[in-house]
Amino acid sequence: MKALKLNTLFVAVTAAILSAHITSVFADQVVRIGFVAPLTGGSAYAGKDSENGARLAVDEINSEGLVLGGSKVTLVLDSQDDANDPRTATQVAQKLVDDQVAAVIGHGTSGTSIPASKIYSDAGIVQLSPSATNPQYTLQGFKTTYRVVATDAQQGPALAAYATGALKVRRVAVVDDASAYGQGLADEFVKKAKSLGVIVVSRDTTSDKTIDFRAILTKIKGQTPDAIMYGGMDATVGPFAKQAGQLGIKAKILAGDGACTAQLASLAAAAADNVVCSEPGLGLEKMPGGVAFQKKYEARFHEPIQIYAPFSYDAVYIIVDAMKRANSTDRAKIVSAMPLTDYHGVIGETQFDEHGDLKHGAISVYTYRSGKKVLIDAVKM
């Protein structure tokens, strides 16, 4: 009887161990995907738009079910606010490393993406920005830096070419906000404009906190340029354009993607109609999955897309595509899988060159009519 009890106990213990082992093998695996953008401050609405796109992708993937290496994987979006501040960006990056995220979607701007990139590189974590456009971001030799938008080395020249061709600009004043994004975009614009024979009548620098531009604008008015190129975000380009209009300046205001938002119309008021701006990527209406994505987004969040939501949405799917090809959520294996990406999503086909930049970028040019953003040209690079 004693032997029988011991045998029964042995069988029970063995079954419990086997059950626990099987459960551990097939237990749900929770995987954190980092997301960083300015969620407070003047660019918070753009950051929230981008966060919404990433969150929509995560929720869809979880709903459809993701199985890797025999385990069901549940994604969690680890969303952080860097307030568009380089120092905060590095602190947030370290937090995400400590949170053991599998990859990061972000940061929102070049000025935050660049300083954070070394932290992710040192940790071996893929960083895929939906919106950082400064060329330097992917030219640091890191194997972990990627982006799903064209660079300022493409955007600046495209804007300059449109200005000289369609707008017949021959004299231009240039202003930037001293940020990595604004200064970089202005530099690329100037190089191309000069090569096309345009005279740069002046080059001024402000800051991304400036709200009164009347001194600079008064000086520029006396230089009678055909256009004024401003490298900066909509929070400053809007007031700049509005004050230019109040001073009777007729020159077109040229800007990049940081200013090319629906928000600009309210910031610049009637002067928005004098703005011509560029965006890296095809316009939403020209994206292969743009119309369908817009319907999903508006049904979920009950507000219009600002600018970057389609890019952050695809960015999440691109990371998951790398996981699927690696059949793993291991950081090193994701890093190894990323160079072979060939993903067809909302924004079109995504393939990366040796730096982590898009092989097939595109630039769209917009203006504003009665306060509404209108696509006027698109150039595939």
TrEMBL record:
Record-annotated Leucine-binding protein domain positions: 31-360
Gene3D superfamilies reported in the protein's UniProt record: 3.40.50.2300
GO biological process: amino acid transport
Entries under InterPro entries matching the protein: Leu-bd, Leu_Ile_Val-bd, Peripla_BP_I
Keywords, in A-Z order: Amino-acid transport, Signal, Transport
Keyword check for Aminoacyl-tRNA synthetase: no
Family: Belongs to the leucine-binding protein family.
Protein name, per record: ABC transporter substrate-binding protein
Source organism of the structure: Paraburkholderia elongata
